[in-house]
Design brief:
The complex is a heterodimer of chains A (98) and B (448). The longest helix of chain A is centred in the C-terminal third of the chain and has 31 residues, at 59-89. Helices cover 78% and strands 0% of the residues of chain A. With 98 residues, chain A is an all-alpha fold. The longest helix of chain B is centred in the N-terminal third of the chain and has 28 residues, at 119-146. A six-stranded parallel β-sheet of chain B has the order 3-2-1-4-5-6. The chains are: A mainly alpha (98), B alpha/beta (448).
Chain lengths: 98, 448
């Protein structure tokens, strides 16, 4: 148990550093799509909700889990969808200088 | 633990791949040319993780899971189809959904484990629930303000900061008590209620101009709460995804605060521009040069270099397509047209870029503040469309101005400045803009 915790903390630390480094490089041009993308990724919390609703331990946990899945799934679907729509719109100049 | 560990290993492997895909996904976001790969990588990772989770043998009942997945998809599709001008409130709303999910799972986990919750578990669990619930109401409030259901002006009362700080301290106190005495389960609802209230209180004093910072901050909170949930469930995937989201929110909010020359605490603990609006009474008497659209067109036609500065006003007036026509006309005449985008223009980071991209303006013409500022002295015409505070030279010259020191677009260095604006009313920050009274400034009133 103790080791698990330490491993988790390592994972968190490394992920935070990688995240800071990678995201610093994202151009300000794409900050809005970046935010909607990380939002969609964040909805990975759905896996916790699925387990909760599926394990069916108590009525309370099933009900809360089900609502949580709805909330997270709408984020996944909506988030990816709108990010892609936004990115599709970004185009470079078609012709070089006239 | 299990006699036949095959499935568990496969599940763990799907999580591992999903984690890698998430990191790659963000890496590809660094350039518009690869960004769409990023979305695909993210989608694939998500799909893998969900399928992997469904394989888990501890799931005994798929009925509710299936119903919820379908329902979530039905809600998600319209949320993905909103207009580009509504993206800020959509984002705020989805922060609220994400936080809602995290909070509910945290609550359920607590009652499943209570009364014997190990100390470490209880501390991350409290963190998850506190961050989750304050992000939930905070984001709902932000979405309401952005959608203009709620008043946009900051609402401030005496001792507000004290009350807010007090609430936060009480919530933390309750959390600590629960960590030491986890069997006092009756205290747990307080861990939900206080932060829920705090979320509301945190957002009401914040005005429209600070929304980009606040949305980024809520993004960071949502990420951290998901990460805390990862600790609770011992899911490395969640820890990583949450940390990535938290990092992104943090970077964006630091960026935004820097762009407004204000610290985090300043954004959170002070309504903006309150003293200042009252201080400037005699502004109506100062002369303003206004121009007709025809005159403006003539000036633009003889220019050789034009920089367009869009602001939230353009978004409100849905003018990005008109701007595109203007851009086409001018480029056809061989005029060099560029767009200057201030980091906090619009209502969320990068909002203007999306709107202009929607209108088909190539992204290599959209320049960041640092890139464009050196070019203003060589610019014939700076055309400001619905932007205000980000062009206010008072930020450089007037040390009494509340936005003094905030980096701005140096439009006043251009040969001619044209401002398209609905009225002389002050900007979101409620600050008068001396730029409008300069001799070389022409005002065009009317909807952009």
């Amino acid at each position: 148990m103790k080791m698990d915790l330490i491993t988790s903390l390592y994972v968190f630390m490394l992920a935070a550093i990688v995240g800071l480094e990678v995201i610093r490089r994202v151009s300000p041009l794409l900050h809005t799509p970046l935010m909607s993308l990380t939002n969609a990724l964040d909805a990975i919390a759905v896996v916790g909700a699925i387990l909760l609703a599926g394990e069916h331990k108590t009525t309370l946990s099933t009900v809360l889990g089900t609502i949580a899945i709805v909330a997270a799934t709408s984020n996944v679907v909506g988030g990816f969808f709108i990010t892609d729509r936004m990115l599709k719109m970004f185009k470079a100049s078609r012709s070089p200088k006239p | 633990m299990t006699p036949f560990p095959g499935t568990d290993t496969i599940i763990e492997l799907t999580y591992l791949i999903a984690t890698a895909l998430f990191v790659m996904s963000l890496k590809w976001m660094s350039s518009p040319t690869t960004a769409r790969h990023g979305v695909w990588a993210g989608e694939l990772g998500m799909l893998l993780a969900i399928v992997g989770t469904l394989l888990n043998r501890s799931i005994v009942d798929y009925k509710w899971v299936a119903i919820a997945l379908v329902l979530g998809t039905i809600i998600g599709v319209p949320l993905g189809k909103v207009q580009m001008t509504a993206v800020p409130q959509r984002t705020a709303l989805s922060h609220a959904f994400g936080a809602c999910c995290v909070t509910l799972v945290g609550t359920a986990e607590f009652y499943l484990r209570a009364p014997a919750v190990p100390r470490f578990m209880m501390s991350v669990l409290s963190m998850e629930v506190i961050l989750g619930s304050l992000t939930f109401t905070g984001s709902l409030m932000a979405a309401g303000k952005l959608q203009e259901i709620l008043p946009q002006r900051p609402i401030i009362f005496k001792g507000q900061n004290l009350v807010n700080l007090g609430m936060l301290l009480v919530a933390i106190g309750v959390a600590i008590y629960l960590v030491i005495h986890p069997d006092h389960t009756y205290l747990f609802p307080a861990l939900l209620a206080i932060p829920l209230l705090f979320g509301v209180m945190m957002i009401i004093p914040i005005g429209g101009a600070d929304m980009p910072t606040v949305i980024s901050l809520l993004n960071a909170y949502a990420g951290l709460s998901a990460s805390a949930m990862g600790f609770v469930l011992d899911s490395k995937l969640l820890i990583v995804a949450g940390a990535l989201d938290g990092a992104s929110g943090l970077i964006l909010s630091v960026n935004m605060s820097k762009a407004m020359n204000r610290s985090f605490s300043n954004v959170l603990f002070g309504g903006f521009g309150q003293e200042q609006t009252a201080a400037k009474g005699g502004k109506e008497t100062r002369p303003v040069r206004s121009a007709s659209p025809e005159e403006a067109a003539e000036i633009l036609a003889v220019a050789s270099k034009v920089v367009i500065v869009p602001g939230y006003g353009m978004a409100v007036a849905q003018a990005q397509h008109k701007v595109r026509e203007l851009y086409d006309n001018l480029t056809k005449r061989g005029i060099d047209v560029k767009f200057a985008i201030h980091p906090v223009a619009g209502r969320m980071p990068g909002h203007m870029n999306v709107l202009l991209a929607e209108a088909d303006i190539p992204y290599d013409k959209l320049l960041d503040m640092d890139e464009i500022n050196g070019e203003f002295p060589q610019t014939d015409v700076a055309l400001i469309i619905g932007a205000n505070d980000v062009t206010n030279p008072a930020a450089r010259t007037d040390s009494s101005s509340p936005i003094f020191g905030m980096p701005i677009l140096d439009v006043d260095k251009a040969h001619t400045v044209m401002v398209i604006k609905r009225s002389m009313a002050a900007g979101f920050a409620g600050i008068d803009n001396p730029l409008y009274y300069l001799d070389k400034t022409l005002m065009l009133f009317g909807d952009a």
